[in-house]
Structure formats: C-alpha cells, structure tokens
C-alpha cells in the first residue's frame, strides 16, 4: 500500500470509531479496542477500580446508555443519541424535573462559537451536566425540564490496549496514544489510527528494536501503565506520544524533558527534511501523556509528535473536531514523518572505517556514482566521504547526516555501499543507545 492508500485506511478507521462514546473507562473503550484488534492482535488489560497507582487510584467505571433533557411539551431539547458530546463525560445517573434556572447550572456552551457543542468531563468530581450549542441554549424557554441520565458509575475496571512486538534486542521503543475521548477526531482518533497502522507496518518490517504500542486513557492510563510496569521501563530507549496528527496545521514536535536525546535528534532531522513548515517546542510539564513519561522519577526519552498542539486550534474539545476537520493529506504527511522516524531509529548505528589512513580509492571499487541517478552524484559522493571520515565508532549515521546537512536516507545508502565493499564494518559499541 502506498502512503495515500494508508491515509485512506486511517480515515476509514477514524470514521468507524467516531460514533463510539469513549471515556477513561467503560464499554466505549473496550468496543474501540475490539475494533483495533481487527488490525493488530493487541492485548486488552483490565485494571480493577481502587488499584493504587502511585499517587492516584483507578476510578470507578463509567457507562452510559442514554441521556436527554425534555421540555414541558415532552420534546427532547438535548439528546445524547444525537451526539455523545451532549453529556458531560462521567455524569452520574439522574432523573428529575427542574426549572430552567436550576438546569442552567448544569449546562455548558461556547458563546464564541455558537454552533459548536463543547466537550466537558468530570472524572474526579461526581456531578452531572449537559453540553449544547449556544444557539440551542438561547432557544430554551422558561419552564420545567425533565432531566434523564441513564448512566452507571460503579466498581469495575480501567481498560487499556497493549501491543508488544519483539525485535533483535529487548531494548524498546514506546508509541503511546490516548483513547479516552468520545466523538472527537483529531484529538484522540487520529493518533489511534496512526498508531494502529504504524504497529501493523512495523509488524511486517525487519526490526532491531522491540516495540510497545499503548492505547490508554489519557493521564490515568499512563500513570497506571507506569505504575504496573515500572520494572520494564529501564528497557525503554526512545518513545513518542502520538496525538493530533490529522489537522491541517503544520507539524509540531515537543521535545522530551531531557531535550537532547536520540529521539529528539531524529524527529528534528525528519521535520527539517519534510520541506514543510514545522515547530519544535521545548518540554513543558503540561500536555498529553508525555507529562507522566517525563515526570522526574522516570524522565524517559519520550517526546510528542503531532500537528497543531492541543488547545491551539478553536475546534479543540468541541463538536467541530469532527470528520471534516481531519484531512487525508495531513494524515498522509504525518504518516510519512512517522515512517521516517522508524527508518532512522532502526538504522542509526555507528560504524568503523576499515581504511582510515588516508582516503580509500572509491573509483576502483565502483563506488563513484553508484547510488542512483547522475543528478545527485555530487551529494552521493559527498555522502560517501562524510560516512568514511566520521565512521570512527563515535558518530552515528544521524550525527553524520546532521553535520553534513545531507539527508539520512542518502547517508544510509552510502553506508550500505561502503559495508558491501568492506570499507565499513559494524561497530560493537552501540553509541546510539548510550547517548
Ligand atoms: Zn483532549
């Protein structure tokens, strides 16, 4: 499949997951993970309510069947069946009649975007509420309203998906995305779709590293995973939080807390070579699950790669983050960036020049102009010279690409040709992972 076909597949998956009412726990998450299992054999974990996870506790499980508000004529003026964003996520069960004035304390709107329904949650404070467009809100007349919420908040489980792919070494790469939002496309579904197809792609690719894909509820999910798997975290070499990869904005990379790790270097190189506008942000202790992975007690080399940062587009956490908001071309561009990251992760090694005293004669080994068309002949020759000169065991191919300002792909091709002619050999010391 080419990149365009993959982006269509990602979009189809987003479309399939869109109607489901997800939350940090509950059937919506299970149903979503079962859909992902049609693509990758991920394992579904269930962690009981009340489980202590560092300073937190796994919350009660929330499920919802139906919810509405009816006016005095029996008409549904707010209906969960029309959009799951209408209910404040984690609303407790309720059935009562009340005046508009009292009801208004439980209603949320966005006057600045009067057509949109906001997305609100109340995970850790037991209450209830409804969200609606401001335009619908101002049509509500004085009078009595029937409020009905058929939900449950009971001891149950926190559900998450995990897919582990072993490689040549048990050093691992983590890709993590959140799965806890209801009908929101860019925020949550785009990341889920890209993670799923990336997992599928890596499954059928030769690999040096082991890979772990996490499909977890935001915040409490990563805290839970880290708490239950602390013993495994020393094997994590690099990682990325995948989120917001479908909007039409330019790509943004948020560096790991350490800021100078190999994954930071890799993503910077990939973005520089996409020939599109991009932004690199330094780490800050706010955002998605990188907050937990990069908490000081873990300080893992994990960044976040997406497009427009959360909160920086008006559609964020509203009904306007819908199927139209996610663009095929953006999904495709994000996909290409992640493939490039994967290629560099797997191939970024340090080598040794076996003929380091003066330049070896490349012509007699057929290396000049050997890497493809004549157009890039000069760049190809330069790549050979750079790789030979800096393959001293201390510089990885990415170090050489960065220093020479040549693309990693070209440096890698040069290294492969040099390996084939015996001018380069593998270096036992793994520089890449010690940085
Ligand atoms: Zn969100």
Structure commentary:
With 435 residues, the protein is α/β, with parallel strands linked by helices. It has three domains: 3-59 and 157-347, 3-Layer(aba) Sandwich (Aminopeptidase); 61-154, Glucose Oxidase, domain 1 (3-Layer(bba) Sandwich); 350-426, Winged helix-like DNA-binding domain superfamily/Winged helix DNA-binding domain (Arc Repressor Mutant, subunit A). Helix content is 31%, strand content 23%. It has 13 helices and 19 strands. The protein has helices spanning 3-17, 27-36, 100-104, 134-137, 185-203, 220-228, 262-272, 290-293, 328-347, 377-390, 397-404, 408-420, 431-434, and strands spanning 43-48, 52-53, 56-57, 61-70, 76-79, 94-99, 107-108, 130-131, 144-154, 157-165, 172-178, 210-216, 236-242, 251-254, 278-281, 302-306, 350-353, 392-396, 424-426. It has an eight-stranded mixed β-sheet with strand order 1-10-12-11-13-16-14-15, sandwiched between helices. A four-stranded antiparallel β-sheet has the order 5-4-9-6. Helix 7 (262-272) packs across helix 9. It is elongated and about 90 Å long. The structure holds zinc ion (ZN).
């Amino acid at each position: 499949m080419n990149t365009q076909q993959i982006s269509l597949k990602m979009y189809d998956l987003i479309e399939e997951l869109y109607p489901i009412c997800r939350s940090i726990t509950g059937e919506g998450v299970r149903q979503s993970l079962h859909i992902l299992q049609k693509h990758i054999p991920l394992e579904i974990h269930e962690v009981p309510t009340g489980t202590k996870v560092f300073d937190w506790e796994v919350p009660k499980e929330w499920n919802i069947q139906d919810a509405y508000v009816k006016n005095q004529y029996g008409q549904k003026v707010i209906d969960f069946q029309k959009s799951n964003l209408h209910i404040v996520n984690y609303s407790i069960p309720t059935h009562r009649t009340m005046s508009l004035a009292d009801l208004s304390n439980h209603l949320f709107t966005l006057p600045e975007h009067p057509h949109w329904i906001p997305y609100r949650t109340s995970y850790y404070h037991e209450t209830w509420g409804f969200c609606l467009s401001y335009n619908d809100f101002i049509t509500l007349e004085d009078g009595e309203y029937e409020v009905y919420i058929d939900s449950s908040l009971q001891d149950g489980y926190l559900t998450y998906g995990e897919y582990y792919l072993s490689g040549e070494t048990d050093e691992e790469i983590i890709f993590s995305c959140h799965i806890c939002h209801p009908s929101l496309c860019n925020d949550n579904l785009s990341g889920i779709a890209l993670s799923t197809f990336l997992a599928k792609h890596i499954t059928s690719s030769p690999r040096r590293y082991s890979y772990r894909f996490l499909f977890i509820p935001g915040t409490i999910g990563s805290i839970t995973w880290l708490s239950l798997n602390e013993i495994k975290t020393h094997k994590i070499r690099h990682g990325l939080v995948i989120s917001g990869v479908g909007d039409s904005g330019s790509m943004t990379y948020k560096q790991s807390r350490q800021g100078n790790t190999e994954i930071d270097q890799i993503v910077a190189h990939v973005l520089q070579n996409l020939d599109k506008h991009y932004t690199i942000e330094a780490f800050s202790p706010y955002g998605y699950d990188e907050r937990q992975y990069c908490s000081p007690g873990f300080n893992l080399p994990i960044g976040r790669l997406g497009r427009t940062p959360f909160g920086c587009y008006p559609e964020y956490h509203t009904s306007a983050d819908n199927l139209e908001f996610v663009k095929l071309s953006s999904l495709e561009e994000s996909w290409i960036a992640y493939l490039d990251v994967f290629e560099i992760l797997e191939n970024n090694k340090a080598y040794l020049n076996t003929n380091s005293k003066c330049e070896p004669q490349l012509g007699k080994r057929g290396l000049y102009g050997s890497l493809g068309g004549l157009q890039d002949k000069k760049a190809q020759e330069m790549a050979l010279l750079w790789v030979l000169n800096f393959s001293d065991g201390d510089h990885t191919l990415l170090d050489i690409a960065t220093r020479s300002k040549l693309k990693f792909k070209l440096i890698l091709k040069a290294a492969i040709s040099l390996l084939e002619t015996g001018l380069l050999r593998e270096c036992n010391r793994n520089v890449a992972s010690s940085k």
